[in-house]
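Section 5: illustrative case.
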């Protein structure tokens, strides 16, 4: 497609306060990349091609491409994540007559969320959702729900060293609690977190953290959580899940 832009003008045209000193060629490449973001060729959250691929596409050096990407990052057009790549953080402006489908198209898919979310962002989401989810489940779980949770716990407690199997059962136990809320919105929101954690880059880090000692610790914690839910002890259940989320966050920080 053409690299000329008929959309919103690049922000550095009107805002020179953040303007770093770059060569005309660097600015030209940055402008051409911005045009692709503004046209929707690379929508918000997309990981753009690697520097070497962009260098081939623009017929220039990787050093020039790197400077262009850093120039874009200065204006918040892209986000550079070491080890993961460069992602589009620019969101196109939409007119008031855009359809609902167009407005919702900027939501990220699970793969994009897994690639762009940080351990900190994951912890914030979990620390907000998990305690309220547990509180509701403790109140509203039916006898059948509690029996299902007990079955999940029995499967989980049978694991000794198999970290991949344990990670799967750990999430299934938490999903059983989510379903126990009988709130489809909360269940769906937790399911999204569940799917992000199943992404290979997250799953590998989690499995690495699941040593036999860590597995035993979580088993004991989930046993206490189950017993609190069974007794309808909301306060205890919520406190246990807060400790679980905090420990999981420490594991991610340690492994990252």
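Designed sequence:
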């Amino acid at each position: 497609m053409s690299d000329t832009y008929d959309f919103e003008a690049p922000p550095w045209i009107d805002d020179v306060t953040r303007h770093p000193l770059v060569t005309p060629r660097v600015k030209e490449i940055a402008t051409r990349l911005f045009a692709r973001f503004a046209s929707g060729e690379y929508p918000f959250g997309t990981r753009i091609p690697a520097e070497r691929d962009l260098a081939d596409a623009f017929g220039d050096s990787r050093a020039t491409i790197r400077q262009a990407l850093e120039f874009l990052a200065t204006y918040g057009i892209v986000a550079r994540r070491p080890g993961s790549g460069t992602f589009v953080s620019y969101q196109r402006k939409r007119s008031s007559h855009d359809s609902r489908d167009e407005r919702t198209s900027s939501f990220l898919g699970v793969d994009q969320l897994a690639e762009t979310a940080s351990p900190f962002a994951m912890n914030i989401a979990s620390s907000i959702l998990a305690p309220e989810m547990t509180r509701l489940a403790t109140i509203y779980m039916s006898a059948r729900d509690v029996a299902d949770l007990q079955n999940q716990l029995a499967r989980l407690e049978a694991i000794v060293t198999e970290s991949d199997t344990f990670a799967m059962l750990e999430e299934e136990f938490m999903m059983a609690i989510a379903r126990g809320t009988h709130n489809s919105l909360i269940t769906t929101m937790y399911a999204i977190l569940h799917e992000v954690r199943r992404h290979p880059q997250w799953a590998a880090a989690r499995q690495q953290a699941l040593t036999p000692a860590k597995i035993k610790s979580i088993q004991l914690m989930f046993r206490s959580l189950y017993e609190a839910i069974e007794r309808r002890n909301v306060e205890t259940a919520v406190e246990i899940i807060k400790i679980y989320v905090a420990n999981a966050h420490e594991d991610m920080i340690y492994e990252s």
